[in-house]
Design a protein that fits this description.
The chain has 78 residues and is α+β, with helices and mostly antiparallel strands. The protein has one domain. The protein is built from three helices and two strands. It has a two-stranded antiparallel sheet. Helix 2 runs antiparallel to helix 3. The longest helix has 14 residues. The radius of gyration is 11 Å and the shape is globular.
């Protein structure tokens, strides 16, 4: 288990299918590769938190929380 692994995955709709995000690295990739053009404040907070968690500077708990908020803000939740 990596230090940036989420305790519970976040499921979102991306590209017409469901994506189960299990860690901060996957979340960071989803934010940069699968996100809609419209980006709110939670998108930017999640992007910073996930990159920081991958580096070991922020907890995976905080990164997951920010990512979940970004998913909810963008209405991508499954």
């Amino acid at each position: 288990m990596s230090d940036f692994q989420f305790t519970e995955p976040v499921v979102l709709r991306a590209g017409g299918h469901l994506l189960e995000v299990r860690d901060a690295l996957q979340a960071s990739r989803a934010l940069t590769e699968s996100w809609p053009e419209t980006r709110g404040k939670w998108y930017y907070a999640a992007n910073r938190a996930c990159r920081s968690a991958v580096k070991g500077e922020t907890s995976a708990i905080l990164a997951r929380r920010m990512f979940k908020e970004a998913v909810d803000e963008s209405r991508l939740g499954a």
